[in-house]
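Marked as duplicate of an earlier ticket. Keeping the data here for the record.
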Amino acid sequence: MKALTIPRDRLPWVEALFWLALACSFFLMPDKLTLLSQILIFGLFAVSLDMALGYAGILTVGHAAFFGMGAYAAGLLARHGWAEPFSGLLLALVVCALLGYLLSYLVVRGADLTRLMITIGVCVLLAELANRLGGITGGTDGLQGIEMRPVFGRFAFDLWGRTAFFYSFGVVLAMFLVVRRVLHSPFGLALRGIHDSRKRMLAIGSPVEARLRLAYCFSAAVAGVAGALLAQTTQFVGIESIGFNRSAEILIILVLGGTGRLYGGMAGAIVYMLVHDVFADIDPQFWMFWLGIFLIAAVMLGRGGIMGMLSRLVATRGAK
């Protein structure tokens, strides 16, 4: 079934307002800048998962492997003397792109159940490896002692999270525009075709496996940048960054926002993390219970996630 989408002529204005609202949150929520930075980072992480799952149709439940690898790459680089922020992002991008491309030969060939097992296995394996190599990664205590240099040599990371917010906002926006350009290109349309009917794409001579490998590689690279951002802005890398729980959490965020929709990951991250924060403040002991009820209600009431509901609302109003 063809997904309902907001008409293209309305997208530029809607997108501009969306990013303007995110930028204005700096002034509206000055005491929540750390939370806002993490919303941006996890939104980018969810977008990377959406490229593989929602657009290419690659069923994966271990995407935290790339997120954590990007975080450790940037964190270790800074800890060992090279603390320039953009260098850490570049290293994380390259490392995760290479890892994603190598793993793509295993992931792309298998069926859905095989892909699930492989991605889960890789995620668990890397998490255990990070735990065993405690002398390098910090193990369960996490990678500490990360000190980042000022952004552009002028803007130092402060305790209030102001520099971290604008740094995260700039990087996430730049990466999102790159993802948007890729998904709107002929390559992105080919991924849509593969997702809808792999056999038809093979019949017209499309190099399906090569394109899926490239999509998985690009998705891994974006996830690595998100992980590096988290390591740089928090100046800490916990072992949970590469664990299966993080993979499950980002999958929930994406489903909440809506798969196969460009802004689904961003919308899901905003709603999930704000609701998470509210419930944790209201009931610090049983906040997961209320969060679970909210997620069940959201999935039952909103087919296609938040973006699906918005698309249907726009389509209904446009038909009147």
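See parent ticket for discussion. The mean pLDDT is 88.
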